[in-house]
């Protein structure tokens, strides 16, 4: 399995339904536009038997780090860091849910972040989690920022230890 960049000419974006309207709409209306402006990149996992159908997707970009909302030890270590890699969205179509695709997509996204960090260094990978998905990310070692439960992070060093 591999992810490819969203291709509006090929992929059936309207068919995608993960159950969260905002995430469906982003894929349908904004993902391609944002990529063409070099603001974000959206990667999709295609259904191997119908490659126009999207099993799941994630969107990558960068985000400022709120140093004060990190545990003290990490604040000191990363006091000169300006930005973290953001996993802005991750979703699996309901038709393919609970088959391990969400986990596979998250690991794929982390590998891409790790690889990007080798050329443009950044110390943290940050996710904006929807309400029901916080424990999904916690399972994989993400921790909440101190000032909000919906925004979580994992250090690139920890990802490197697990996947590098
Ligand atoms: C969250 C989501 C990506 C999970 O995708 P999925 O393909 O069904 O998940 P997987 O089958 O890979 O599950 C992997 C593990 O995570 C767990 N898991 C799945 N969804 C979870 C959730 N919402 N909360 C906590 N754990 C979850 C599974 O039980 C599984 O654990 P196990 O290995 O111990 O059995 C998917 O349900 C989704 O797209 N939801 C709507 C959008 C959303 O909330 N996105 C995430 C935040 S932006």
TrEMBL record:
Which InterPro entries does the UniProt record give?
Acyl_CoA_acyltransferase, GNAT_dom
Statement: the UniProt record of this protein carries the keyword Repressor: yes
Per UniProt, residues of the N-acetyltransferase domain are 39-143
Protein name listed in UniProt: GCN5-related N-acetyltransferase
Q: Which UniProt keywords apply?
A: Acyltransferase, Repressor, Toxin-antitoxin system, Transferase
**Which GO MF term does the entry hold, naming one?**
acyltransferase activity, transferring groups other than amino-acyl groups
Q: Which Pfam families match?
A: Acetyltransf_7 (PF13508)
